[in-house]
Design a protein that fits this description.
It contains twelve helices and twelve strands. The chain has about 325 residues and is α+β, with helices and mostly antiparallel strands. It has two domains: about 5-190, NADH Oxidase, CATH 3.40.109; about 190-250, no CATH class. A hairpin with a 4-residue loop joins strand 2 (about 55) and strand 3.
């Protein structure tokens, strides 16, 4: 179990400031001493969530408030406790009499060590999960409206005083001080839930499990932690150009024998399209004017005769129209 310098400076509340060389050397010295004395241990137990509580008939934790939000969709839950041992508390008491700055650094080192230890505990819990299960993050008493008094029930259910030497004081302080108690929910993976619905697996974008190389070996990260699943809608098949044109021709064209569908695979697509269009498109017919009545025709001919006589043209009904010769008087 190794912690980095960045993790320690984060618990020192340094923000974006970079530690100088003297501070780095002091952190490394105290961290080496801490590695030599810590004795990390943990214990956990799995419970079924029934009637809104976790635990047994005699001792149980009611699931209310923010804890109920954290455990939504969970049918089971783990109660977990971990500590880095009482030796680290002895080192804290010793350093407190020597240097307050070293005590502040050592407190940050202890917090980073217990958090790293609880992370490794989660990796081990994941190895116990059945196929299609995943776990939530840790949720400890004191978060939100989860009361600190719940630590009494957690420690009693796990029998921590006997198993790992973890107990509580009258003021609900944990001994050893660098210890954690938490609740971890057990959920079914989203891919397992959606696969049983009517959508079917063909419309589900599943995620694959990811291997994580942790300080205590390789753990499997469940698919639900990799990325959220997205139900993809069934795509709509759009008609092709040929299908659209043939459908329109069938709807508006004349009732005649069916012709071959238009194909665009010929060497000259435009020629093929025009040939098929000529065969299938209706030919417009010019409308004939109705025959005039005999009275109208006679009236029209009389008007034509009057106009011809006025212009000096002799019209013979039996012979074609001719222009009379010009007559001149003799002697002129």
């Amino acid at each position: 179990m190794k912690v980095t310098l960045d993790e320690i400076t984060r618990y020192l509340r340094m923000g974006t400031a970079s530690p100088d060389e003297a501070l780095i050397n002091r952190i490394e010295l105290l961290l080496d001493n801490s590695y030599k004395i810590i004795r990390p241990t943990h214990v956990w137990r799995r419970f079924t969530i029934s009637h809104g509580v976790i635990g047994t008939a005699d001792q149980y934790i009611p699931i209310t408030g923010t804890l109920s939000m954290h455990l939504r969709n969970c049918r089971e839950a783990y109660l977990v406790c971990g500590t880095i041992g009482t030796s680290f508390d002895a080192l804290l008491r010793k350093v407190s009499t020597i240097s307050s700055s070293d005590l502040l650094i050592l407190q940050a080192i202890g917090t980073a060590l217990i958090e790293k230890w609880m992370d490794s505990t989660e990796y081990k819990i994941r190895k116990e999960l059945a196929i299609g299960e995943c776990i939530t993050s840790r949720y400890s008493p004191g978060y939100g409206d989860f009361p600190l008094e719940a630590q009494h029930t957690i420690l009693n259910l796990l029998d921590t005083p006997r198993k790992i030497g973890l107990s509580l004081t009258d003021t609900i302080l944990m001994v050893p001080s660098k210890s954690v108690s938490a609740v971890i929910g057990v959920q079914r993976e989203r891919s397992a839930i959606y696969a049983e619905t009517s959508f079917g697996p063909q419309n589900i974008q599943t995620s694959t499990a990811t291997a994580i190389n942790g300080p205590y070996g390789t753990a499997v990260k469940p698919p639900s932690f990799a990325r959220p699943l997205i139900i993809k809608p069934i795509p709509t098949i759009e008609p092709t150009i040929e299908e659209t044109i043939n459908t329109n021709r069938t709807a508006i064209g004349p009732k005649k024998a069916p012709t071959a569908p238009i194909s665009f695979t010929s060497p000259n697509p435009s020629a093929s399209f025009l040939n098929n269009f000529e065969n299938t498109a209706p030919i417009p017919q010019r409308k004939k004017k109705p025959n005039a009545s005999p009275a109208k025709l006679q009236h029209k001919e009389s008007n034509h005769e009057r106009s011809s006589c006025s212009s000096g043209i002799n019209i013979d009904a039996g012979t074609p129209n001719t222009i009379p010769p010009i007559v001149t008087r003799s002697g002129r």
